[in-house]
Amino acid sequence: MKKKFIVFSLLALIIFAALFELGKNTLWGWAVLLVLFVAAFVLHKKVFSSKKFPLRLLAFVGFFALLCVTFRFSAPPQKQVPAVDVKNPEATEIVTVQQGDLTGVYNEDKSVEVYAGIPYAAPPVDDLRWKEPQPPASWDGVRVCDTFAPRSMQADSSVIMSTLTQMVGYHNFNISLKDNFVEAMSEDSLYLNIWKPAGELKDCPVLFFIHGGSLTTGNTSYSEYNGEALAKRGIIVVNCAYRLNVFGYYANELLQAESPNGTTGNYGLLDQIAALQWVNDNIASFGGDPTKITIAGESAGSSSVNAICVSPLAKDLFRYAIAESSGITAIRPYHTFRSLKSALKSGQALQEEFGANDLEALRAIPAEQLVLTKQNNSSMTVDGYAIKEQPYKTYEKGEYNEQALMNGFNVHEADYFTFLQKVTSENYEESLKDVLGDYAKEAVELYPPEEVDPAYKLAVVEQGGDAKGSFNKVYSAAWFSYSHYNWSHLLAEKGTPVWLYWFTKDNGSLGSAHGGEMPYAYGNLDAHPSRYDESDYALSEYMMDCWVNFVRCGDPNGENGNPLLSTTPAWEKFNDAPNRVYEFGKTVGMVDDPYLQLHLLLDKYQATLK
After folding, report:
1. Where does the chain hold its CATH 3.40.50.1820 domain(s)?
2. Measured between alpha carbons, how far is 299 from 326 in angstroms, rounded to an integer?
């Protein structure tokens, strides 16, 4: 009996210890966990091994009930993330912006100043929910900006699921005492962050970054696009939070009628433009030049960059644009964009879901309940104010805002979005009709059935199929690369300089899946150093040079248009080589567009949607 009890107890301890680690439970929870198991060993003779069955049953039930209660009540608390991972960081000198005085903190080697949690708009709560962003209030005294503001409201998965996602998708998991918390979340989230080279600056170029997350998730403290590394290279980096999902992209006829501008459905986009306006008004206080701003974004952040490029509200607020893995220039964009009719229909469905008959009732719904709506609010729309018309039409008229564009896509963009779908030779053509309609058969001929690259299979959950690899290639093109091909052509036809890249570098983390280029371009491989080798660090150095050069002069090759390294080929403009892309991978240089024939096929299909 004793041996069985020991084996049973050890197995239970291992299981609960794994749950506590995956769940990021607090230290006191770990302490109670150990106390409970020690107590179980001490009492096993008298209680757990008792000859009286009711007593044994009660002991085991009580033991597991206490374990579950401990797990529940030692769940990680919400916490705001410090601006720098430095114990007792030194404060910067006081900076004066329009709203008042503030200080930031220095990074570890004092080469970069970080200002986190600066309000750029009034909290969009109560009567300001679903209204255009309002100016931020001024403050007295000196505001300490040493901590990232809470994330915008979003529907979180469980902590355990989030940790498993990191393990399976990013191959990233470290046992640590520093991560026993969940990042705070609030409807009051309209804040931005600034990384600048330390010391006095004047007329410094600025990179304004917009995070991705399908317009429904994301945060500004994420390590993959921390601005410290680029600031060390001599530019100022800014990022901002914005309203997400139902708070950022909900559309409603009542709200449209209430708005002085007749807008609805683009509140998150309006937030981004308000943050960009704040940077124009205040960045000189940090040594930045408001005439030298480049906007950048990845995934839904890239779609947002595209929207800002066509928005009349952003005219003259920036000069260049960097877009990574998304855009909305197709005749009918595949994601992050919908018709106003569709948006308003979804808005009505949400009213019915919550039984809200008017705006007062809608605004009275607690944010924690509203964020769990069943309605999808992950798309911008043509509201007639922030976005006047289908974006491609604005480009055809030549009324866009960017003076130069650097953009691109990755090899395995779609792989981690389709893992629950099984695609075989039998259903392959039918599965492509959502993105190609009657041209699906021609796509099958271009990409005959093949399986998923083993390096990009998500353990256990990947459904696979003998045509899944080919299916992923077509979807990667339709959802992601086609928008860049299309965007680049629209600009090149007007004589605007464009550079187009293709990221192909495999590694121990995301590889060249969606988002895989970010830690390279923004210099954050050290966030997960065990997942990268010397070749990755070398590529990151080069990509950072390209990004910084583009911010400085609108050309990734530098002001003289020369290759950055004598061993590295120059990056040719798309205008001069429209059928080629610049590869960032094991090798670097110009190669033929890997999806050219498929892009031409997508052109045909999209033409039928006008």
Report:
1. 78-172+183-402, 407-607
2. 5
